[in-house]
Amino acid sequence: MDADLPSATDAGQDRRPLVLIIDDDPAMRDSLAAVIEAFGFRTHTAVNGLEGLEAVATVAPAAIITDIHMPDMDGLELLTALRNASTGIPVIAISGGVAKGFDFLSAARKMGAVAAFQKPLPVFEMIDTISRLMTRGVAA
Fold first, then answer.
1. How do the domains of the chain map onto residue ranges?
2. Cα-only R_g, the chain
């Protein structure tokens, strides 16, 4: 058998790293997924932290991008749940604002996010961060 040909067990398996995107805004979720896929990653999306937490168990993401402000379970609650579950999955937090002087992105970093970005997102910086996470593990 030619070593260059894929085996039957490789058929249909996409080995690109999977990034789970959690955001309640469908336009943000879809556009972020399109950009990340354009840079060679697979994506899976969820609309809130609860759905994202369920996806962690089913799709085994290599990294997670989560919005902070979402209904049902927000990004900070998700970070707490992931930390309590000891998943070890690197999380990048994103947010569109500050409420009453509270810096949600700083709080996310303190809660374990490896990086945090303000919307509108610096796409190339975020892609660079994801790429570094995939090549070095969880160091961003």
1. 16-122
2. 16
Residues 6+ apart with CB under 8 A from 135: none
Per DSSP, what are the bridge partners of residue 116?
A: 93
Residue 81 has, within 13 A of its CA and on its CB side, a CA count of 15
Q: Which tokens belong to 38?
A: 């354009």
| E strands, 3-133, in order | 18-22, 42-46, 63-67, 91-95, 115-118
Q: pLDDT tens digit string along 52-65?
A: 999 999 999 999 99
For 6, 29, 52, 55, 104, the CA distances from 58, given in Å and listed in that order, are 26, 19, 10, 5, 28
Percent of the chain past pLDDT 90, that is, above it, reads 76
Which superfamily, per CATH, for 16-122? Response regulator (3.40.50.2300)
pLDDT for residue 140 is more than 80? no
Task: Say whether pLDDT at 79 is over 60.
Answer: yes
- The yes-or-no verdict on residue 27 having pLDDT over 70 is yes
